[in-house]
Amino acid sequence: MMAQMRYAASVIFAMENKKKVVYNLLPLPEIKAYIMSPLPIDDKGLMKMSLQREPRKKR
Amino acid sequence: MLSEWYANVQQPVQESVISVILAWIDTFFAHDMKNNSNIVNMILAFTDVCLTTQADVGAKQQIRLAIAAKLFNSPLDMNEKLHRKKPPRPYTPSKTQGLRILDIHPTELARQLTLMESTIFSAIAPSECLNQGWTKPTKHATSPNIVAMIDHFNTVCRWLAIEILAPEDVHDRAAAMHRLIVVAEECRVLQNFNAVMTILAGLQSSPVYRLKDTWAVRCRQRDRDRQRERDTGSLVLSLMLAPRQLLPSKTWDLWESLSALMSVDDNYAAYRTAIREAQPPAIPYLGINLTDLVFIEDGNPSYLDDANEIANFTKVCACERAECGAS
């Protein structure tokens, strides 16, 4: 159990350690807006779209 | 008698309490106090009420100085000092309206994904990782940033599936696929493993992965490229002969190396090695960390007795150590 606990501690520690320095990059809001506002299509709609593009082939 | 009690009992207890307060300020100021002036005021009131004797002046001053240092030297300042260089010049897309994936430079797309994800990832407090808070009905209150990270993963997955499925022409769909694989590689270079996994998951989602004709375009292209390389015997010659057709072959190799990196084999051994060796800043694929924590949480009881009265202090200590070590 102690080993597991130490592992849990190391998981959280490793996560925290990776964010000690922030990325030095410039944000471009137009790209963020483009990625974060996809068409309102659910999983069912995506599959329907996929089937339209490439219908199932008859065997 | 009283002086003995003061020396042997009261003083050590006071010193311990002061140590805990100083450690709390040092480690969790950003999470607990930066946006909550009530806690700071309570600590200051405590020092005023409880640390009144001449002997306590030093401790009182120490606590006040620790708070002042945190207030005026945020971790962001440290980053500003580290980033003396200007950020790289962005690849601004030629248009701002009606953007499609091919309008944006893959490096820039990777950078923007990384910026978005690093903002959410950096906001995750260690306490959000405890007690599987992100799986509970109260997840938006207990683990808001982990939930935001998961939502972001799903949104990006859906976005890239739509980007691939939107074009009616099979070659356009293949072009979108190639672009996304290159973006995933750029994310790997930035050590954004979460985005690498997001893109792989999106490409391997059922609606995209079943597009055999689209994937076949890539495979046929790759076979043709490799045949040409074999025929000419030189990569440089093949570049000269067919500069447009080299990319798909390269992309295919990228796909294989990225799939190997994020492979589930040996419990994500390749990825675990990569993230362990990565120098910050990096963004881990949160799904694996959360799965690990769920297994650990489920495998260890929170209480040591049936009546739920004796807390598993070992578990609490381990979490506390993890959080202290996180600063």
Structural account:
The complex is a heterodimer of chains A (59) and B (327). Chain A is mainly alpha-helical and 59 residues long. Chain A has 3 helices and no strands. The longest helix of chain A has 16 residues. The mean pLDDT of chain A is 84. Chain B is mainly alpha-helical and 327 residues long. Chain B folds into 2 domains: 81 residues, no CATH class; 184 residues, Son of Sevenless (SoS) protein, Chain S, domain 2 (Orthogonal Bundle), CATH 1.10.840.10. The chains are: A mainly alpha (59), B mainly alpha (327). At the A-B interface, helix 1, helix 2 and helix 3 of A face helix 4, helix 5, helix 7, helix 10 and helix 11 of B.
Q: What is the fold's blueprint, element by element?
A:
The complex is a heterodimer of chains A (59) and B (327).
Chain A lengths: L1 H16 L11 H8 L6 H11 L6
Chain B lengths: L1 H32 L3 H14 L6 H16 L2 H8 L23 H18 L15 H4 L1 H22 L4 H20 L3 H11 L2 H4 L2 H21 L2 H7 L4 H16 L3 H13 L8 H14 L13 H13 L2
Helix pairs in contact in B: 1-3, 2-3, 5-7, 5-8, 7-8, 7-9, 8-9, 8-11, 8-13, 11-13
Short description:
The complex is a heterodimer of chains A (59) and B (327). The relative contact order of chain A is 0.06.
The total strand number of chain B stands at 0
Fraction of residues in helix of chain A: 55-70%
Helical content of chain B stands at over 70%
Q: What is the CA-CA span between the terminal residues of chain A?
A: 54 Å
Radius of gyration of chain B (Å): 27 Å
Q: Helices and strands of chain B: which structural class? A: mainly alpha
Number of strands of chain A: 0
Question: CATH homologous superfamily of the largest domain in chain B - what is it?
Answer: Ras guanine-nucleotide exchange factors catalytic domain
Would you identify the CATH architecture of the largest domain in chain B? Answer: Orthogonal Bundle
Mean pLDDT of chain A: 84
Instruction: Look up the CATH topology of the largest domain in chain B.
Output: Son of Sevenless (SoS) protein, Chain S, domain 2
